[in-house]
Amino acid sequence: MDGHVRLLIAWNEAINLTAIRDPAEIARAHVLDSLSAVPLLRALGVRGLLDLGSGGGFPGLPLVAALGTERALLVDSVGKKARFLATVIEATGLARTTTAEQVRAEALAFDHRDREAWPVVTARAVASLAELVEVALPLVAPGGHLVAWKGAAAEEELEAAGPALRALRAGPVRVLHAGVPGLDDHRLVVVQRGGAIDARFPRDAAERRRRPL
């Protein structure tokens, strides 16, 4: 991941990918935090992943490199960030299995190629858990999982996401400690895909704001 970090630092001045500037701190706060999900994903036998709101490439790129996934898609709605992701993918030799795309998750969820197609969907520092459940679960294959990186308020977010979890017919939910030294409050919220999801989900952003679940 050295190449990823070097490119992150080089591009950061132009497009503000991270507030952290020190390479050692980037490695701990971003790379190691991303890799905290590797034992879980290996145990689940995950061979493909979709990373939402990838931004600077976390957690998607470290996970792809560590897991050797057969396919991966990293998406961000901001064009400059998607171009950064494509540059890193090419520079680090991941282009055979990994692609980057500028697209909103809501649009992706109504594309027949991606809806219910991914064994795991990851999201780090992206939206509230309630919103993630609505946007991400329609992309998860039956029996697959949403993995969300959260901080100390993970339990509160989980409680607030109750209506969304019920509306999207989510399966069991686990909250795991990330286990990264110095990031003691970091959690992984793991939501299993449950029953069939109503075709109207996810709703567009304006409707979600007007009528939260």
CATH class: Alpha Beta
Radius of gyration: 16 Å
How many β strands by DSSP?
Answer: 7
Amount of helix: 40-55%
Summarize the structure.
With 213 residues, the chain is an alpha/beta fold.
Explain what this protein looks like in three dimensions:
The protein is an alpha/beta fold and 213 residues long. The chain has a single domain (2-210), classed as 3-Layer(aba) Sandwich (Rossmann fold). The protein has helices at residues 2-15, 23-35, 38-43, 60-67, 79-91, 105-109, 129-136, 154-160, 162-167, 205-210, and strands at 48-52, 71-76, 98-102, 118-124, 140-150, 173-177, 187-192. Strands 3-2-1-4-5-7-6 form a seven-stranded mixed beta sheet, with helices on both faces. Helix 5 (79-91) links the parallel strand 2 (71-76) and strand 3. The longest helix is centred in the N-terminal third of the chain and has 14 residues, at 2-15. Residues 7-15 have low confidence and may be disordered.
